[in-house]
Each structure stands twice: as structure tokens, then as C-alpha cells.
Write a structure and sequence with these properties.
The protein contains ten helices and nine strands. By secondary structure, it is of the alpha/beta class.
């Protein structure tokens, strides 16, 4: 799991972009997104978008992509990357907290949140349940009937098998229990140019122990597991007739 103080409170958006450019070299994330939802002609919202990793994956298929994040420096890169897509796509970026999505009711078909909701829903935050409930309510508010919610979170970097960190266990339990999400895990391994780069990036973003592990393994491939949660939102409409 990325260290929050590193990603959002220091100017490291460029090395972060390098990190994610090496992630999931086998392409399991875009393949899984397409299996879960049909993005063709849809309005897709990317919450906690960062540098637009998920936005860029789905933009060529979607009618419009809306990237939302509270880190303006990250969104700067997201905007630059989205602008470079050829042929051009319809997109916008918004600086906002995901607990207050800057969209009207029923304005979206798909809402994604990749490796971001965990910072609000970690049990290290005493208000995690309220935060999660607020994001779930906002997500359902902006989705049209039959819309999809897709959440991706870490299940361990440097691990061959999924690992649930203690401070995320309650959050994950509520996703499948209280909120009715389906769930599966996928591999999203990193492939760097060298063992040295792999160790340096792993230490910078995931801690000294992961960096040492990479050096001991002597491989430029860093294993990683990612959890995917998804559900379809159905709304009840009361007719006046």
C-alpha cells in the first residue's frame, strides 16, 4: 500500500507516474475492468484518480471520463495524459474530495475508485465508517439506474498471494457484507528496467522491507496482488401516475 504522506503531501507526482507505468505489465487491470462493465458510450467517473491511470484505460471506449482527486498536482498529469490520447476523447478533471462528488444526480454510468478509498476507509481513521458510508451514498447518487461501481485496492506488494492488512479488513468486510459487492483478486505485478530501479522504487513507495526483499530476490519483476470489488446499482423510482 502506498504511504499516504508520500503521495499526497510531497511533490512526487512524476516518480509516482513512473511507478504506475511499470505496474500490471501483463494487463490484468484493463482486462478486468472490461469484463465487469461495458464502457462503450458511457460516462465514467474516476474517484481518487491521481495521475489518471484508470481514466486513461477506459477513455478510448467511454463517451466521457471525469477524473476527481483532491491532489491538484496529480490531476495536472492526468489532464496532460488525457489530452494526448489520439483520437481525442471527452474528459474533464475536478479537484474535490470523493465524499463530495462534483456531479449532478444520475450523471454517470460507471464510478471507479482505484487505490484511493482505502485512505478514508482504513480503520486507522476513527471516522472510517462514516467516510465509507458517505462515499457509497455519493456514488449511488451520481449513478444512473443500472450503473456500476468498481473499487480496486491493494492486497499486498511483494506478495505472490493476496494479503489483507489489518487496518483494511473491516473496510473490505463492509464492502462485501453491508454494501453487497462481489469480489475477486488479480495479479498486478510490476516490471522495472532493472533490479536496482525495482528496489529503489519499492523502497520509496512501499517501505524499506519491500526494497530489501526485491534486492534479495534479484528480479526486476515485483509481485503484487490487487483486490477488485464491484456491484450494479439498482434504483427504485416511484411513479406519480
Amino acid at each position: 500500500m502506498l504511504r499516504n504522506e508520500d503521495v499526497y503531501h510531497r511533490q512526487i507526482s512524476d516518480p509516482y507516474e513512473r511507478l504506475i507505468s511499470c505496474e500490471d505489465y501483463l494487463g490484468n487491470i484493463p482486462r478486468t475492468l472490461q469484463e465487469i462493465a461495458d464502457f462503450r458510450g458511457k460516462v465514467a467517473v474516476d474517484l481518487g484518480a491521481g495521475t489518471g491511470r484508470l481514466s486513461r484505460m477506459v477513455a478510448p471506449y467511454a463517451r466521457k471520463v471525469i477524473a476527481v482527486d483532491f491532489a491538484q498536482d496529480m490531476l495536472r498529469i492526468a489532464a496532460e495524459k488525457l489530452q494526448q490520447i489520439d483520437p481525442p476523447v471527452d474528459w474533464s478533471v475536478h479537484v474535490s474530495d470523493m465524499r463530495h462528488i462534483p456531479l449532478e444526480d444520475q450523471a454517470a454510468d460507471i464510478v471507479m475508485a482505484g487505490w484511493s478509498l482505502c485512505y478514508l476507509a482504513s480503520s486507522n481513521d476513527p471516522n472510517w465508517e462514516q467516510n465509507l458510508a458517505r462515499v457509497m451514498a455519493e456514488t449511488e447518487r451520481v449513478l444512473r439506474d443500472g450503473g456500476a461501481v468498481i473499487i480496486l485496492e491493494t492486497l499486498g506488494t511483494g506478495n505472490e498471494e493476496p494479503v489483507v492488512y489489518d487496518f483494511l479488513q473491516n473496510y473490505f468486510d463492509q464492502l462485501t457484507g453491508k454494501y453487497g459487492f462481489q469480489h475477486k483478486s488479480i495479479r498486478t505485478d510490476y516490471r522495472f528496467d532493472s533490479v536496482q530501479e525495482a528496489a529503489q522504487m519499492a523502497e520509496q513507495f512501499f517501505g524499506e522491507s519491500v526494497g530489501r526483499q526485491v534486492l534479495e530476490n534479484g528480479s526486476r519483476i515485483v509481485p503484487e496482488c490487487t483486490g477488485v470489488w464491484w456491484k450494479t446499482v439498482r434504483k427504485s423510482f416511484v411513479s406519480n401516475h
